[in-house]
């Protein structure tokens, strides 16, 4: 992405900001000239914001700079020509800047300078690991101005497909520089995969991915099931071994085992006795 790389000095487009331009706006309304909007490029060159108070019928008491409505420390002076320099601008320096003039017994006046930058996603989850039936939450937060449009996508067959808010179990919350995707009641067959958040503004675009893993309900039981399986296998081995061992102990005559055996030996004895008797 190549934004405007022109130094601000060249981009100075003298914007005449006439404040409170009511129908009867007289010449005694303060007028402010600014150096105009700038874009933090790549590579980022130093930028200088300027405001000149070109006419005012009131006595200036002090002036200062604000960024996104917050006063920048140590910028307060009694000066009608104001300058704010950012020597190493980064995406987080982008935003809405104001130069503000306070007057003796007159309303304050200000002018706006937009400092733009492509979005940069500065926070996201690399992975989200949940059990089926639970909810997953993924987020991305960004710097860059104007605030980006957010899109969530899911990789299907190698292509990222848009996820619509409120479609099925998907819910999306967007704030200016933050987005959140929630998936309710996770399904092990449908939901695991690669999810992408995409931030796009007028200057550029950036995206990051989160890998969602969904484990089976049984996952927490696996160690226990492993031990159980081991015990079952041991028992089976012992039983099989015992069953194989027993036939070896039985004598090779085809006589049935158990109490019958004693009967049969008795029979032999009886036979012998009978034989003896006959002798
Ligand atoms: C503001 O005034 C200074 C000093 O006269 C001048 O160098 C600068 O270019 C002016 N800036 C703008 C935006 O008019
Ligand atoms: C700011 O400067 C102006 C012009 O020099 C002067 O009239 C005014 O009194 C000063 N204000 C303060 C608060 O020092
Ligand atoms: C700038 O002026 C506008 C209109 O008077 C006002 O609503 C806004 O709060 C001012 N901003 C700052 C930073 O003073
Ligand atoms: C996000 O935006 C909010 C409000 O616009 C702001 O207060 C906050 O500092 C921003 N955060 C970042 C990381 O830019
Ligand atoms: C998505 O839908 C929810 C619930 O209807 C709503 O609260 C939320 O603002 C929507 N988000 C977006 C980005 O439209
Ligand atoms: C983000 O989405 C936009 C619009 O679909 C696309 O043009 C852009 O290439 C995407 N950006 C990234 C970094 O994937």
TrEMBL record:
Cellular-component GO terms for this entry: axon; plasma membrane
Identify the residues that the record assigns to the Ig-like domain, covering every copy.
30-114, 119-210
Q: Under what name is this protein listed?
A: Neuroplastin
Q: Name one GO biological process term.
A: homophilic cell adhesion via plasma membrane adhesion molecules
- Kindly give the SMART domains that the UniProt entry links to this protein: IG
Where does the signal peptide begin and end? 1-26
Q: Where are the transmembrane segments?
A: 221-241
Q: Where is this region: Disordered?
A: 246-279
Q: What does the UniProt entry say about where the protein is found?
A: Cell membrane
Q: Name the Gene Ontology molecular function terms of this record.
A: cell-cell adhesion mediator activity
User: In the UniProt record, does the keyword Transcription regulation occur?
Assistant: no
Could you tell me which InterPro entries the record lists for this protein?
A: Ig-like_dom, Ig-like_dom_sf, Ig-like_fold, Ig_I-set, Ig_sub
Query: What is the protein's species of origin?
Result: Pipistrellus kuhlii
Q: Which Pfam families match?
A: I-set, Ig_3
Keywords, sorted A to Z: Cell membrane, Disulfide bond, Glycoprotein, Immunoglobulin domain, Membrane, Signal, Transmembrane, Transmembrane helix
Regarding the membrane, this protein is recorded as: Single-pass type I membrane protein
């Amino acid at each position: 992405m190549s934004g405007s790389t022109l130094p601000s000095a060249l981009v100075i487009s003298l914007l005449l900001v006439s404040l409170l331009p009511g129908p009867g706006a007289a010449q005694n309304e303060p007028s402010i000239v600014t150096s105009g909007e700038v874009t933090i490029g790549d590579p980022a060159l130093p930028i200088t914001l300027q405001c000149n108070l070109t006419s005012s019928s009131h006595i200036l008491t002090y002036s200062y700079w604000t960024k996104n409505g917050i006063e920048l420390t140590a910028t307060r002076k009694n000066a009608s020509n104001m300058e704010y320099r950012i020597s190493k601008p980064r995406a987080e320096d982008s935003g809405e800047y104001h130069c503000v003039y306070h007057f003796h017994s007159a309303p304050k006046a200000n002018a706006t300078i937009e400092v733009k930058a492509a979005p940069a996603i500065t926070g996201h989850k690399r992975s989200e690991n949940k059990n089926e039936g639970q909810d997953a939450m993924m987020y991305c937060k960004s710097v860059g101005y104007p605030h980006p449009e957010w899109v969530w996508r899911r990789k299907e067959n190698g292509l990222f497909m848009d996820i619509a808010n409120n479609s099925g179990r998907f819910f999306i919350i967007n704030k200016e520089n933050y987005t959140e995707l929630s998936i309710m009641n996770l399904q092990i067959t449908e939901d695991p995969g690669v999810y992408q958040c995409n931030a796009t503004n007028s200057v550029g675009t950036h995206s990051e991915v989160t890998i969602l893993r969904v484990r089976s309900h049984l996952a927490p039981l696996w160690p226990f099931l492993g031990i159980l399986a081991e015990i079952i296998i041991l028992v089976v081995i012992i039983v099989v071994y015992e069953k194989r061992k027993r036939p070896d102990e039985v004598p090779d005559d085809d006589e049935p085992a158990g109490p019958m055996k004693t009967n049969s030996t008795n029979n032999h004895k009886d036979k012998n006795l009978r034989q003896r008797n006959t002798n």
